[in-house]
Design a protein that fits this description.
Distance between the termini: 23 Å
Number of helices: 12
Strand order of the largest sheet: 3-2-1-9-10-19
Helix content: 25-40%
Largest sheet: 6 strands, mixed
CATH architecture of the largest domain: 2-Layer Sandwich
């Protein structure tokens, strides 16, 4: 297989990390961006007149949500199958990120798209169908595999990718990961947002806590184990701002995902040959937005203590590392060989 460097002709190569909460895109022409995975449509003609357009994406859609009907077309990291609205919103979101990456130039675009490790064949085929409208060649690969590819870690390692919709755990064994080497858990960042909103509302029923506000608190303060400083946030009760201590709520919610991650991490670890297990134990990698949960690396290492002293590390750039792995793969593996790596489509 020939390694290709840079862009070939006028073809634009893309890496896309299609997430439940955020979609990340990078191109081989230096473009990179993060977009909230939400599409908004004006509720009526007043909204169209005020906004000047018929669809809005990302943070702008969230900021103007009172005038919009919002669609979150990705659930658990794959396209929702609840109706035409979600399907159309997913198609428009993908088209939007590809057009942004083109930067106003008419280029033939090829892209590698990341999905949860155990996404079904139906989900992958649906994504390829949608993406093929805007990409001449498209390949779908698992998100933790993209992280491993970015790091150049292909053997005796385990990647734990904690995203908005899912937690993906993938054992790297010197080949493209098989189904038995991967697991997808449906308790990612969105699960934490929901639980944190409920926990704060239960502890302080007079407060007004939205899901978006719970997400902001989580993204700023998430931790497990001990903390040096209490988590105090300003919330509103009947419109009046007050300072609340939510330390225990944040801790309990974040620690709720640890047992299941540790259980499946240990199961994949035990699937390695015994002579390889000491090396694997020193090469456990946390990625995704959830890798920012303070103390998570230490707590997971402690949960693996019965197997020996584990080394759990966090990637330096959890926002872009999966996407950069997809782009790196697109640059190094020509599209004509993509069918040897993942699900492929195009037009």
């Amino acid at each position: 297989m020939t390694v290709q460097g840079g862009n070939t002709g006028n073809r634009l190569l893309l890496g896309i990390d299609l997430g439940t909460s955020r979609t990340v895109v990078m191109s081989d022409h230096g473009y990179k961006n993060i977009i909230r995975s939400v599409v908004g449509y004006p509720k009526d003609i007043i909204g169209v007149k005020m906004l000047g357009k018929t669809q809005i994406f990302g943070d702008e859609a969230l900021q103007r949500r009172s005038a919009l009907t919002l669609y979150y077309p990705l659930r658990d990291g794959v396209i929702r199958e609840t109706g035409d609205g979600d399907y159309n919103a997913a198609a428009e979101l993908i088209r939007h990120v590809v057009e942004l990456a083109r930067q106003g130039e008419a280029r033939d675009a090829c892209g590698i798209v990341g999905v949860p490790a155990r996404a079904s064949i139906v989900n992958k085929e649906l994504l390829i169908t949608v993406a093929s409208d805007v990409l001449s060649s498209v390949m779908v690969v698992s998100e933790p595999f993209m992280v491993a590819y970015a790091l150049g870690v292909f053997n005796n390692a385990i990647v734990v990718d904690i995203g908005g919709g899912t937690v993906d755990i993938c054992g790297m064994k010197g080949t493209v990961p098989a189904a038995d080497d991967q697991v997808t858990l449906l308790k990612g960042g969105n699960f934490l947002d929901e639980r944190l909103q409920a926990a704060i509302s239960q502890q302080y029923p007079e407060t007004q806590v939205t899901r978006n506000l719970a997400r902001l608190i989580k993204e700023k303060y998430a931790f497990v184990g001990a903390t040096e400083e209490p988590v105090r946030v300003t919330l509103r009760a009947e419109g009046r701002p007050r300072l609340y201590d939510v330390t225990e709520e944040v801790r309990a919610v974040c620690e709720a995902i640890v047992p299941e991650i540790a259980e499946h991490l240990a199961a994949i670890f035990r699937s390695y040959d015994p002579e390889d297990q000491p090396d694997v134990l020193q090469n456990i990698i946390l990625a995704g937005g959830g890798s920012r949960i303070r103390g998570l690396d230490v707590m997971l290492a402690e949960r693996l203590r019965e197997y020996g002293k584990a080394r759990v590390t966090c990637v330096d750039d959890p926002d872009f590392i999966g996407c950069s792995g997809a782009l790196k793969m697109a640059q190094e593996v020509p599209p004509e060989f993509w069918d040897q790596v993942g699900f492929v489509g195009g037009h």
